[in-house]
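Entry for the shared binder. Reason: the reviewer on the internal report wants the predicted structure included alongside the sequence.
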Amino acid sequence: MQAIAPTVAPLIRRHAEDAAFYWSQLDRSGEAYTLGGRRALHFCQLLQAHLEGLAIAGPEGEASALGQLVRWKKPGEAFCAFWTALISGREPAQEAVWRLVRRSPDALLRGAISALVWAPEPASLAWVAAHARPECGAPEAVATLRACALRRWPLPWPWQFVFEHPHPAVRATACRWAMTTPEQTHLQLVQALLVDSDLAVRAEAAMALLTLLRAVSSLDSEQLSLQAASVLWAAIAAQAERAEAVTGWHRLQAQRRLLRWLRHLAHAVPLGHPAVDRLLQLLPPRLALSFVLNHGDADHCQFLLAAAKEPDTARQAGWVWQSLTGVDLVQEGLTRTDMQPSADGQAMPLQQSGDDGLPWPDARALARHPASHRPGPADGAATQRMLLGREVTVDWLCRVFDPASDMPQALRCLAAQTLEFMQPGLGVSVRCSAPEQARHLARLRAAT
């Protein structure tokens, strides 16, 4: 009788395709309004199942994942191919992936870094140990730094090597690593990069300095914080111009970076700061709405009400209002029925694709709602950040982050970022594996 093949090629290819798909869904989930925590966790479990299928397939799984990367050249395929190569431990398979990553680091490096986080720790550590050499290339150095930061591993190089590296991407990533390991000795290294020639390095240095100053004592913390905030704001302004000057994939990447910088600034600026109103006027409207949500100051409801009247920002403004106040627009009847799709399927006018799934708010109803007129302190300044109508505390953020609460993935991501801001070095993410998220949650609850 003809021998039965030990593997089924179409099934292996399906494992590779679906693993890349689910990774991509999770990677973009930080802005997902309609993806709940339970379904996102289900995506994690499906991704893990497809990865296990590739692992069982052995060399055939490696070849299929690599073939998908060669064909599509996307970060999801880079994640899948590098993960299978890592768990096999075969250096030729790992090098085959990295030959492609080195050619297109801007597109593929993100997936390779994620593979180092998802893979079993011994496999990832073995790769880091093999590539932690001074002569290694910039993409390998960036991947090593990010893996060490995300998995809380000690840095395999002297600090000066990465902070003074000739490639700006390595210097910028060194600053991101410093944020996860807040120590007094990192202050001077980071502060020196505030005047770096590269825009991204200056921004990352500013964010790292703001984080370090919160975590460690410094006699000049107020002056340094002001300097870092000024550098970060200048970088955001320049990055906003860059994002408008490019199109397609490059614009998406520029906007991703811009939003991360803006979120950090929103967390760093004290509530009630007099410059915030001016900042909201200078930012493009949609970026200003993102700032308000991450800033968490419910006293900016008037800004949200104004944005809710504009067709191109109405749905995002309604989402931010709902996220701050905790009042559900649909359940409270605060939506515009005349802006819903008609019976013949005619699309709503002036839609923003990023707002798909969000209801159209009734700006007049929002203005009349009591949540838009929250009484503030006697001095008129906000004292506590808000999320879903409650004061932001570690305990409340843990509840939002918990997948069992089934909060929208965008709010889970916001909770994770706020937790990291409040307690630097904890390391919280909505894009890691399900067991890792459970460990994050347990560690947070133990710390409180």
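Summary line for the report: The longest strand covers residues 386-387.
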